[in-house]
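Journal club side-thread
Mid-discussion, someone asked how the predicted structure for our own chain would compare to the paper's figures. Pasting it here so we can look after the session.
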Amino acid sequence: MEKALILLEVTPQKTDKIYDKLKRMKYVTTAMKTYGRFDIAIIIEVKTTKDIQNFVLSARKISGILSTETLIAVE
């Protein structure tokens, strides 16, 4: 299993809606609203790094997401 932490900057008025949508998405194991540079952080667990790429590309299509930063876990 591959794990990644994805940090998202979102439009302030859409934070709750985006958060609710992200936490229901396949592969998301943890979702949290945060203060600071990023508004939402999620942890995903997938089979391959290609799955991480596909997840991020699909998440970026959500209206209101301004930017993402993906941190891939290593052992």
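Post-session note: The chain has two helices and four strands.
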